[in-house]
Amino acid sequence: MNESQTIDIHAHILTQEAMSLLHREAPEIAPRLSPIDADSAVLDVAGTPYRPFPRGGWDLERRLADMNMAGVDVQVVSVLPQTFLYNQDAALTATFAAIQNDAIAKLVSEHPTRFVGLATLPMQAPDLAAAELRRAVRDLGLRGAMIGSNVEGRNLDDPTLEPVWAMAAQLGAFLLIHPVKVAGSDRLKSYYLVNLIGNPLDTSIAAASLVFSGVLARHPSLRICLSHGGGFIPYQAGRMIHGWQVRPEPKKTLAESPRESLSRFYYDSILHSAPALEFLIASAGTSQVLLGSDYPFDMGMPDCASHVRSLPIPAADRARVLGGTAALLGLRPADLGPQSG
Description:
- This protein is α/β, with parallel strands linked by helices.
- The protein has one domain (79-330): Metal-dependent hydrolases (TIM Barrel), CATH 3.20.20.
- It contains 13 helices and eleven strands.
- The protein has helices at residues 16-25, 60-70, 90-110, 126-138, 162-171, 193-196, 198-212, 215-218, 233-246, 259-263, 274-284, 304-309, 315-328, and strands spanning 7-12, 32-37, 40-45, 48-54, 74-78, 115-117, 144-148, 174-178, 223-226, 266-268, 289-290.
- A five-stranded parallel β-sheet has the order 7-8-9-10-11.
- α11 (274-284) links the parallel β10 and β11.
- The chain is globular.
């Protein structure tokens, strides 16, 4: 792989074909679009509207043009978190997941140099989720899955989720954790705080739950990436390590310091701040930081590649963040072959 190639590991998609198939399956739940103007629409999923949903979310021509303008060579695409549907009947969610995963696999096959795919899973039914992850990776060629930061209020340390972690570890799957139905939402209704604070908060809860429950210690091959720069995990990792040393509660399940588990997280670069991203790279290392845009949402970073290129860090470090580390994780188009250099 060309060392300068950029791989954006955090981008969302909902193809028009997938919407049509989902509507055929369950029209009252399936996502639908109501145009606002030429560039955006209202997205409605199961009666809950989201606005504005930018055109690039469903229009492939617009997406490719935006990628070219942003200098993004490859997107690792995943579904919209609005379509997780963990609150629906598990069988219906499993069907919706299979339809969307098939659609992403089809997109990848039609544009093999521009896209890599992640699956979505029916996490409210862990056995079904594990089975769909296996199908998505082994049969469809997807590289892992994007999952929610909680499952209808259950933290990711819930023992019933063990089949998902075991399967992901066995497959070597890449898991991107994305916030959903965030904690404290009753106090975050004003000022868009549900996203500004709620999203990084819930990602932090998810990460801490995985560490202190021993999920990462039990599965040393798990590869988990925290979205939006990891919430406050990078900034407060020292507090967690200290807490484990001085308090009995963090030791209840985790017999060893959380330091090693914390060091294994990957992070996307979506921080909207050069100093914050520099801190993340310095503290986590370039082997753990991956380019991300959150395309097409307005809270994303369409300039993610130029943002990284502008950092005052060594060229080799920039190359790793822009795509080198993602390639080593298997998040590169299969037809490009092994990473060069």
